[in-house]
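Lecture notes, continued. The same structure-token format from the folding unit now serves as the input rather than the output. Read the line below as a description of shape only.
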């Protein structure tokens, strides 16, 4: 879905001055209520001057300060171009039991095959969702996304999901912590989202090309 909606309540076209973003949620998760109410989408705070520039570095394009910045000073703020679930494994698999001596018992080939097939199908479905989201973006937003470098396990993911894995940021307020100590019921409720921005995703947060 596009947030804020590009159509007003009366059906007339609407362009938000701070831009729109595409939101992809897991099929089993409710859409955050804030995304369905235009009045809940807050304006992006502005800075009095531009405090950064995007330029080439030894590890690709990066964000560099153009002046000395004080502690707690707002450097920039932006609305992301995409927020998506993180496509983590949604079928809870308990940790392998341990035999005498504390060594894990190997997972059977049958169970391993089921896990591998589920993961492969999940990644294909996520790539299709991302294709739909990019199709709804403005050309300049779509170009900004495709200009991002894709380096994260590129052989295991599609061209769009690889860019997410390389350049995304976890979102405060959306994330839960998952651990093996969780019950299956708790694990099913984990909701992890991440965002891609035109500026923020150029910050070298993974020590790889951006």
């Amino acid at each position: 879905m596009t947030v804020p909606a590009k159509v007003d309540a009366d059906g007339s076209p609407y362009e938000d001055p701070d831009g729109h973003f595409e939101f992809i949620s897991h099929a089993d998760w409710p859409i955050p209520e804030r995304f369905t109410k235009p009045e809940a989408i807050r304006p992006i705070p502005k800075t009095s001057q531009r405090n950064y520039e995007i330029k080439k570095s030894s590890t690709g394009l990066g964000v560099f300060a153009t002046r000395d910045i004080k502690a707690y000073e707002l450097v920039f703020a932006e609305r992301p171009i995409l927020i998506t679930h993180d496509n983590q494994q949604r079928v809870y698999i308990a940790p392998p039991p341990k035999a005498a001596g504390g060594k894990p018992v190997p997972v059977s080939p049958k169970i391993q095959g089921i896990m591998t097939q589920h993961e492969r199908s999940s990644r294909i479905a996520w790539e299709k969702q991302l294709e739909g989201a990019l199709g709804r973006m403005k050309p300049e937003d779509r170009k900004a996304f495709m200009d991002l470098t894709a380096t994260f396990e590129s052989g295991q993911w599609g061209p769009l999901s690889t860019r997410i894995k390389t350049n995304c940021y976890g979102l405060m307020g959306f994330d839960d912590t998952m651990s093996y100590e969780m019950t299956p019921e708790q694990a099913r409720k984990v909701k992890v989202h991440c965002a891609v921005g035109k500026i923020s995703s150029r910050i070298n947060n993974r020590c790889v090309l951006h």
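Point for the exam: The two ends are 26 Å apart (CA to CA).
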